[in-house]
Structures are given as C-alpha cells and as structure tokens.
Amino acid sequence: MPPSAVFDVLRDGWLYAVWVVGAGRIRDVEPGWPAVGTKIHHSVGSWPALIDDTTSVLEMEPDRLLKLRGRAWPAGEAEITITLSPTADGCRVAITEDAVKGPGTLIPPAVRHALLHWRNTETLRRLDYVATGRARG
C-alpha cells in the first residue's frame, strides 16, 4: 500500500489508541491534527491505572514524516519519529523513539532502547493491520 494509505491512519487521531501500544483511550483530538502544534489528549495504561496526558506534533510532512512529543507523566516524555518511504510494492514505515525528559531518561540506554524496540515492533504491526483493513474498505 502507498505511503498515503498509512498516513491516512496517522491523520486520524481518534485511531491513535488502536495502534499505539500503551495508549488506553483517546479523550480528545484537537482540530487540524496532525498540524504542527496540535495535540491528542490520551490516557496511557489500563484501567484503573490510567494517566491522562497528551501527544503533540513537532513536525509533519504529509505521507512522509510525523514527529511527536509523547507525554505520560510521571514517567516523562519521549520524542517519536515515524517515517514513511515508498518502495516498489508499497512503503516502508519506521519508528524511532527515545525518552527526552523525566525518569525514563534514567533507564540505561541499552535497556530503554530494547524495551522501546519491542513496543514499537508491535506498534508497527498494529499500524499495518489498521492501514490494511482500511485499504480493503
């Protein structure tokens, strides 16, 4: 599927909790999402231990790039970059993420990156399922 089909899922902030591992629910999506500066108001975790916070757009290039600042205090904040690259048979989607503020930065980088790799592998799997399902109609 083309990058535009995947980016259509990213454009729908209400789907965020469907494909992002750890997002429990969406409380609000600001008008204009995913324009730079707009936010998704989400809850992280599982009921009854939910943390209400936000994810904001730092940078966006349609069908190519979405850079986010995810917050989940008291755990901290992370920067997440999702890139889409066209390929001969569709597109390649990559996610990079790292803690940038708060207690999450105290976890040794090797451990932090291993945990984030596991989480983001599943996140990409879910994003693929949603994009593929929507493309089928």
Evaluate the radius of gyration: 15 Å
Write down the secondary-structure element order.
HHEEEEEEH
**How much of the sequence is in beta strands?**
35-45%
Low-confidence stretches: none
Distance between the termini: 13 Å
Physical arrangement of strands within the biggest beta sheet: 1-2-3-4-5-6
Which structural class matches the secondary elements? alpha+beta
Largest sheet: 6 strands, antiparallel
pLDDT average, as an integer?
Answer: 94
Helix content: 25-40%
Number of DSSP strand runs = 6
Q: What is the count of helical runs?
A: 3
**Which of globular, elongated, flat, extended, rod-shaped describes the shape?**
globular
Produce a short descriptive summary.
The protein has 137 residues and is α+β, with helices and mostly antiparallel strands. Helices cover 30% and strands 42% of the residues.
Describe the structure.
By secondary structure, this protein is an alpha+beta fold. 30% of the residues lie in helices and 42% in strands. It contains 3 helices and 6 strands. The protein has helices at 3-11, 16-19, 109-136, and strands spanning 23-29, 39-46, 49-61, 65-71, 77-87, 90-101. The protein has a 6-stranded antiparallel beta sheet. A hairpin with a 2-residue loop joins strand 5 and strand 6 (90-101). Helix 1 crosses helix 3. The radius of gyration is 15 Å and the shape is globular. It starts with a helix and ends with a helix. The model has no long low-confidence stretch (mean pLDDT 94).
